[in-house]
Amino acid sequence: MKETFTAPEPRSGATPHRPGRRPARAPAATAATALPPAPAALAAKVRMLGPTMTRSMQRVAEAVAGDPAGCAALTVTGLAERTGTSEATVVRTARTLGYPGYRDLRLALAGLAAQQESGAAPAVTADIAVDDPLPDVIAKLAREEQQCLADTAAGLDATQLDAAVTALAGARRIDVYGIGASNLVAQDLAQKLLRIGLSAHAHADPHLAMTGAVQLRAGDAAVAISHSGRTVDVLEPLRTAFDRGATTVAVTGRPDGEITQYADHVLTTSPARESELRPAAMSSRTSQLLVVDCLFIGVAQRTHDTAAPALAASYEALAHRHNPRG
Description:
- The chain has helices spanning 39-49, 55-66, 68-72, 76-83, 87-96, 102-118, 134-155, 158-169, 181-195, 206-213, 232-243, 280-302, 304-322, and strands at residues 174-177, 200-202, 221-225, 247-252, 265-268.
- It is α/β, with parallel strands linked by helices.
- It folds into 2 domains: 39-124, Arc Repressor Mutant, subunit A (Orthogonal Bundle), CATH 1.10.10; 155-318, Glucose-6-phosphate isomerase like protein, domain 1 (Rossmann fold), CATH 3.40.50.
- The longest helix is centred in the last third of the chain and has 23 residues, at 280-302.
- The relative contact order is 0.12.
């Protein structure tokens, strides 16, 4: 008689291990179902997707971003020769950026060049110099912040955002992870969710984050915020939450980063430009705040019947602290 193997029952209260996996992403839009990016969005797409491309594709992307007018005048063969790549690489780059083919990318490049010439689509902001007067610093920072927000908005996947909102709106408990500047964003999201009546926690101490993560289970949610996508003190609690069965969300500037292996939903921020006087954490924080604000508004809309009275109650409870003489 042939013996059969029966796996042992898990210990009472134990959570079965769920191996790391990348989340199922929404299928890429085709030319028949979606319009290619507008010229203004092309520059954002290049900045957003460049880090995830192969080196040869990056050369093509850098060329079209740096000289849209010059590249618009080139045939597919000409652009391949200019970048030291192949015609196939040029076409793959165009499709990665959301265009059916090189002809469509070329038209967008011509449109972007025209916008830049008219001043409607400014070129990349100059770095802040050590001897810049403060009025120039203000102008450069404002331009850079605007660019970060525009790039993040252009690259944010509405389908992934909607799924993340659904998960948070229905969660029994929400843990938010972030270290350094990202922890400031994590605290911001947690306190907003708390004010609309949700059970949300953000721990600056990574040990407390892990302690909270092991308590999560199916029906809970965890949000991890890491621009690099590889911060250990963010990855570990996210992976633990993932293994425990919680729905997980990653907010990151690296859609190819390790963090996405343990995220059911990935929300991508713009790449952070770093210079001597502007650390990457400054621009990444700006992008992250936009994403968590989108999350919060979406959740508040989805839970409006309970969120509105909870928010009103929190305002009332704190009113005398804002105006003690009133």
